[in-house]
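Working notes for the structural subgroup meeting. M.R. asked for a predicted model of this chain before we commit to crystallization trials. I am recording the input and output together here so anyone reviewing the notebook later can reproduce the run.

Input as submitted:
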Amino acid sequence: QVQLVESGGGLVQTGGSLRLSCAASGRTFSRNVRAWFRQAPGKEREFVAAVTWTIHMTDYADSVKGRFTISRDNAKNTIYLQMNSLKPEDTAVYYCAAGPRWGNSVHEYDYWGQGTQVTVSS
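Returned structure, recorded in token form:
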């Protein structure tokens, strides 16, 4: 079992920044890939960014490239999502996920956090 707990969401104005955190516990060694997804009201959950836990490989959705940065802290077993230049369309519940294989589909991930709300006002 793997437990994931997100934090850091909130309300921010357009152009502002937020940093999300996702702390993992449990049998995390079995899940080498960590990712962020988001889900806006009435929309499907979509990929935001991913990072591998061993070799440092990252991937981003086109909509966030150049604005968001995913990083990891091995000692704290935590990943982060630094979000800059936020836009109203970034408003969503952001979820942390862990899985055994590299990918940008929700089906690649079998452990999920409870989500944290990010709201960007115009």
